[in-house]
Amino acid sequence: MDGGSGINSYAANSKLQNKAITKMKPFVEAAFGELCRDLVPKKMVMADLGCSSGPNTFMVISEVIHIIRAACQTLGPKPPEMQFFLNDLPGNDFNNIFRLLEYFNNEESLRDANVPYYIAGLPGSFYGRLFPQQSVHFFHSSYSLNWISQVPEGLENKGSIYISKTSPPQVVKLYQEQFRKDFSLFLALRFEELVSGGQAVLGFIGRKNKDILCGELSCLHSLVAEALNSMVLEGLVEEEKLYSFNLPVYVPSMEEVETIVTEQGLFDTLQIKMFKSNWDPDDDSESDIVRDNIKSGANFALCLRAVLEPMISSHFGEFIIEDLFSRFAINVANHLLKENTKLPILVLALKKKD
Q1: In this model, does residue 296 exceed pLDDT 80?
Q2: Would the pTM count as exceeding 0.85?
Q3: Are 33 and 325 a contacting pair, CB within 8 Å?
Q4: What is the pLDDT of residues 17-67, one digit of tens each?
Q5: Judging by beta carbons within 10 Å of its beta carbon (0-12, 13-18, 19+), is residue 319 exposed, middle or buried?
Q6: Which of 81, 86, 164, 324 is the most exposed place for a label (fewest CB within 10 A)?
Q7: Are 135 and 43 in contact (CB under 8 A)?
């Protein structure tokens, strides 16, 4: 993710993620209502896994504080002391988080909530242990579990940067195996860390299309690959560099996620739903027609640039960024004239089995 708070930063271009967090709120409310009713804890630990940096980071905490206050007013007990851990990879812009923390603490609505809380950063991969056994009451994660732990080994996917219509079956198999391995590990680790009766609400980009080669994210990343291939043809990008670049992401179907959770046997699935989100973060309509495809293409290019720029700069060099995302914006605009593809957002509520 692009750090800081500049025009191309993740903090300034994370409205799509904000929308997903809003969709997840009813799941979070249900979880904390049950936790406060059944466990009646004097102190509670929550971790946001893949917190990134920017206003969304504190949006989740603010929501939980107000949910706790409302639950305790209804149920009667005194609000518990809340310990929030903000987790992401060490390269995340934690300094920006800590700078924003002062403004967050001064919000009047939080003082009025009368819920004591403490916030700490926790750098590290959520594909490893992060907490002592049975020490966490609730895990939250949004737009993070699509990132697998690594690009699958042995990948030969020339001209593409993710699964696409031209990808051979072995590429699909390797990506699927890597996601299955990583998500199974993630569930096993969180099971160890959660208290009895602890819960998790997980949100990530899903796949509605049953044909994995034509998944919604495959379409999106094919437009990035198209821009890169055009730069190869013009001699602006080395062909070998494109052939050796693949994204460490995977977008599962709802059935894939349910199968892994069931096979693990560690959690009960309380709820699982899929929502749709337009590519353009400023487009809240449910229409299949895009009003301004040029503007929508530019808006979405900013969003994706904020996410992918560090990886692309590291592999290809910073000099291609402006040109690449200008081409990508045009590709998106042209695509939206033909089809208003939407991102399926998968939300999963889990409870630890006894």
Answers
A1: yes
A2: yes
A3: no
A4: 878 888 899 999 999 888 888 877 789 999 999 988 777 888 889 899 988
A5: exposed
A6: 81
A7: no
